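Here's my example:
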Amino acid sequence: MDFFLALFLTILIELIAILLIVIKVKLTTVFTYVCIANCITLLFVWFVFPQLISSYYPVFILSEIFAVLFEGIFYSHFLKLTLKNGLMISFIANLISFSVGFFIL
């Protein structure tokens, strides 16, 4: 899968997941921050971490932990959520995104 297709699918899946959880925030706000957060994390996941670590599983684990933590902190700050809720939303969205990606690959 190429980077831009992965980015598009990740944003789409995580946007839907987050919109189902975060009801009080406008669609355009959620869309904007999901796009920004995923652009940042996917750049690290696809291009930075594989350059630092050559083995697949450590890169995979580091990437998922990074994505959940970064996006959780990002969402809690910009969507005005508690840190706990931001991390929970990020974890759920990333779990759904990973699961869908696992089944389509």
In short: The mean pLDDT is 94. The chain has one domain: 3-15+27-104.
